[in-house]
Specification:
Layout: E1 2-4, H1 5-11, H2 18-27, E2 31-39, E3 46-57, E4 60-69, E5 75-80, E6 90-94, E7 109-111, E8 114-116, E9 119-120, E10 155-162, H3 173-184, E11 207-210, E12 218-225, H4 234-242, H5 250-262, E13 267-270, E14 278-283, E15 289-291, E16 297-299, E17 305-309, E18 312-316, E19 320-321, E20 334-340, H6 343-353, H7 358-363, H8 370-386, E21 390-391, E22 396-398, E23 407-411, H9 412-419, H10 425-434, E24 438-441, E25 451-455, H11 467-478, H12 499-513, E26 517-518, E27 524-525, H13 529-532, E28 545-546, E29 557-558, H14 563-574, E30 581-591, E31 600-610, H15 628-641, E32 646-650, E33 656-666, E34 669-677, H16 679-684, E35 690-696, H17 697-701, E36 719-728, H18 733-744, E37 748-757, E38 766-775, H19 784-802, E39 805-806
Parallel strand pairs: 11-14, 26-30
Antiparallel strand pairs: 1-10, 2-10, 3-4, 3-6, 4-5, 6-9, 7-8, 12-20, 12-21, 12-22, 13-20, 14-17, 15-16, 17-18, 18-19, 23-25, 24-25, 27-29, 28-29, 30-31, 31-35, 32-33, 33-34, 34-35, 36-38, 36-39, 37-38
Helix pairs in contact: 1-3, 3-10, 4-5, 5-8, 10-11, 12-15, 18-19
Length: about 800
């Protein structure tokens, strides 16, 4: 919402500069996003001039060399290109040094060899209209040299407001003036609809029928005859332009001006184009079509509302008028319609048609029926003043003014309890009256608290519905900055992290401590992600939760894996020459369930590594790169930090490289995957080598040891032994280590692979693994005789289960 400051100050002038007004409105809840300057600068350089003579330019037929009287005996030569410039005219002149609306500073120019000391101005060159073909010719009475700002609204500051959906009353200049009055206490001028030149009663030659009163609470209309269509005066066009609307003609401009002032949209029908002089408000028929003012043909459905005449729909109610009955240059009779519509229906219509207008943006927020006649009064006064129209007696008013105001009890004790600050009851009443609430001191019996009975004005009917809303109004106007900093009552709050959150933070901190950077990806993704990850048709990760009202196709479903957002961030960074990445995310993923049940959701932990794992140096010019084992190391760091027993086993994922992927087990339960990206998947995101993992963190933490158990430091030395065993190439090293640990019994403390050998000595299709074994007893020092039995069991188990052969 753009509010020209000079228009606002016409209704409420607190004597503050724009920055002060911005501060008071923002601090009381009407946020000012920005303050813009509209129009020209250096106002002293814009003056009234009189054209003494205008001669044809010697070098250009379309230019005139004018001698202009600028007052105080000063005359300047100005070259002008307007065809309507003539001697004797009073004109608007910009002198050198003037700042034009686009910010450029005017200087002395030479046009086709002739010097020009300024400009004779058209409307658009002052920012007060769109006309450029001819210059502005001022009315008589102004003397040359007089400041142009005394005659024309050539400059103003414009407040750009962020109006929340619950405050449609602030979508009008007078509504903002009311807020400024409430925030500062400055006098508020009378409402512009206070004096109504119209009369009640039927209108001859026009009829309105409302067949859908549930969607149209009120419909008002007045008829104007003998009017003349023409341009609006400069002051009106200037205000429309400053507010962001383009002037068109006096009648259309009046509807826009009244809408901006009151906050309620209007629509003007050419009454001679309304077939049968009768308007009917009804629900549209499925498939019905109408050509709107923007020249597009719209197809309607049965939930939409139309205004039609004897020839069919002539307007989409609350959204946009139809081309068939629009006002045009030959219009002499106008039916001015100001109606109230149900907000949710207008919002749906606008969304379905993809048609958003200034009217729909206001109606969808819920306007009070009482505001319809207010806008009608403002439009009536302007029609009589600016178009020469004659008002036909009577006012069509179907539906009445609206329900009676609700009265809410505001208790002083409740105000103090909620705000933590006592506000005198007289102060509460004063602040609420500034907002046009009707306030009376509530009668108090022995058991009743001191308070106020507050009647809510119609324009706040949908926003203020309970005592807490009144407390909010009092607090924001009295000054939220005055409220003391107090802690809310604890009510049994523990004030500490749960065990699950503590463990989750430990896992995340372990990754951060090893140099990974956390990202936060979107929960929304595209359905095409499943195909890009090569997921099988029956893969459960295709069970997307579909959003009913997505912002875009690329974010129309909820993600079932973190991998998509990790890949997107990796590609974005690589495109900006950051190829060596270590990223992780701890976030929620979602999965749909059959039967309309609520979707399953859990928190996952995922990471992706690309490029080099560390910067190159003179000692390591070629550092290790991202791989399965690098990802496994970081995964182990996170799981070990929360003491989860884990392992990996061979497995295949469609988005991982065959032979370089595995399933992650926590406490023996599958909780995720780890591996290097499949080349086709990596290529789809413009990545080279990349390792990644993702685990269901909620399930994995179920196997965590939240409270570590004390273990005595070993008092006796370990006995170390190395074994070399040849096994078939197809046997994973993890399977060898698993057999060794099971067969080694209680005395075997650790077992690890420290070397791999292939060669003729081992045999084709076989590989030799060198194992480092450590044995230890808690109560004695072991001897060779103690470890011989477990050693023999290990050798036998390797031979029996894996076809292993001990090497000398």
């Amino acid at each position: 919402m753009r509010v020209p400051l000079e228009w606002l100050l016409e209704h409420c002038d607190p004597g503050l500069d724009p920055a002060g007004i911005e501060e008071r409105l923002t601090m009381t809840g009407t946020k000012v996003e920005a303050v813009h300057h509209h129009g020209v600068g250096a106002l002293e350089r814009f003056v009234v001039g009189r054209v003494l003579d205008a001669q044809r330019h010697p070098g250009a037929e379309r230019l005139s060399v004018c001698r202009v009287d600028l007052g105080n005996g000063e005359t300047e030569q100005i070259v002008c290109g307007a065809p309507n410039v003539a001697a004797g005219q009073l004109v608007a002149v910009a002198r050198p040094g003037a700042v034009m609306p686009d910010g450029t500073t005017l200087g002395t120019a030479r046009l086709r060899g002739v010097e020009s000391h300024g400009m004779i101005l058209a409307e658009d060159e002052l920012g007060i209209g769109t006309e450029h073909a001819g210059i502005i010719v001022l009315d008589g009475g102004a003397e040359p040299g007089r400041p142009l700002a005394d005659l024309l609204p050539i400059a103003t500051e414009v407040l750009e407001l962020e109006v929340t959906p619950n405050r449609p009353d602030c979508l009008g200049v007078y509504g903002v003036a009311r807020e400024l009055h409430a925030a500062t206490g400055a006098p508020l001028g009378p409402p512009p609809w206070a004096e109504d030149p119209g009369t009640p009663g039927a209108v001859a030659g026009a009829e309105v029928v409302v067949e859908a009163p549930d969607l149209c609470p009120r419909f008002t209309a007045r008829v104007f005859e003998d009017l003349t269509i023409g341009p609006s005066p400069p002051w009106l066009k200037a205000r429309l332009l400053a507010a962001g609307l383009r002037p068109i003609s006096n009648v259309v401009d009046i509807t826009n001006y009244a809408m901006l002032l009151v906050g309620h949209p209007l629509h003007a029908f050419d009454l001679d184009r309304v077939a049968g002089r009768r308007l009917v408000v009804r629900r549209a028929r499925d498939g019905e079509q109408i050509e709107t003012l923007d020249g597009q043909v719209r197809t309607l459905d049965g939930e939409m509302l139309v205004i039609d005449d004897a020839d069919g729909p002539t307007s989409i109610a609350g959204v946009m008028g139809g081309a068939r009955s629009e006002v045009h240059a030959d219009t002499t009779r106008v039916l001015m319609e100001v109606a109230s519509w149900v907000g949710p229906n207008i919002h749906r219509t606008s969304q379905v048609l993809g048609l958003r207008s200034e009217a729909s943006a206001r109606f969808e927020k819920g306007l009070a029926p009482e505001q319809a006649l207010e806008a009608q009064v403002v439009a009536t006064r302007l029609m009589l003043e600016l178009t020469g129209a004659r008002l036909v007696p009577g006012t069509i008013d179907v539906g009445g003014p609206g329900p009676p105001p609700a009265t809410i009890r505001l208790r002083s004790a409740k105000v103090e309890g909620v705000l933590g600050l006592a506000i005198p009851i007289a102060r509460q009443a004063e602040l609420l009256r500034r907002l046009e609430f009707s306030v009376t001191v509530a009668p108090r019996g022995e058991a009743e608290e001191v308070g106020l009975d507050v009647a809510v004005p119609p324009f706040r009917r949908n926003d203020v519905t309970r005592e807490a809303d009144l407390i909010e109004e009092v607090a924001r106007l009295d000054g939220l900055e005055k409220l003391p900093a107090t802690l809310p009552p604890r009510r049994g709050a523990a004030g500490r992290l749960s065990t699950e959150r503590t463990l989750r933070r430990r896992a995340v901190d372990a990754l951060v401590g090893r140099g990974l950077f956390e990202i936060i990806g979107w929960s929304f993704t595209a359905p095409a992600l499943a195909d890009r990850l090569r997921l099988d048709p029956d893969d459960p990760r295709r069970a997307f939760v579909v959003l009913e009202n997505p912002m875009s196709e690329d974010g129309s479903v909820l993600r079932t894996t973190l991998l998509g957002s990790l890949l997107d961030v990796a590609r974005l960074n690589q495109a900006r020459e950051a190829a060596d990445l270590r990223l992780f995310e701890c976030g929620t993923v979602y999965r749909a369930r059959d039967g309309g049940a609520l979707p399953h959701e859990h928190r996952s932990l995922g990471a992706i590594l690309t490029g080099r794992l560390q910067p190159p140096s003179w000692g390591t010019p070629e550092p290790p790169r991202a791989s399965f084992f690098a990802a496994k190391g970081f995964l182990g760091a996170a799981l070990d930090a929360v003491r989860i027993p884990w392992a990996v086993e061979p497995a295949v994922e469609p988005f991982l490289h065959p032979g370089r992927s595995a399933r992650v087990l926590a406490g023996g339960e599958p909780v995720g995957w780890i591996g290097e990206l499949h080349p086709l998947v990596a290529r789809a995101w413009d990545l080279a080598d990349a390792g990644a993992f993702e685990i269901d963190l909620d399930r994995a933490l179920g196997h965590a040891t939240a409270v570590p158990q004390f273990e005595d430091i070993a008092s006796f030395p370990a006995l170390h032994m190395d074994l070399a065993v040849a096994v078939p190439e197809s046997v994973p090293a993890a399977a060898v280590v698993d057999v060794v640990r099971r067969a080694g019994g209680e005395l075997l403390e650790t077992a690890r692979v420290f070397d791999v050998f292939r060669g003729a000595q081992v045999g084709e299709g076989r590989v030799s693994l060198a194992l480092a074994l450590s044995f230890r007893a808690p109560d004695r020092t072991l001897t060779d005789e103690d470890v011989t039995p477990p050693r023999e069991r290990i050798v036998a188990a390797l031979a029996d289960e894996l076809g292993g052969e001990l090497r000398a």
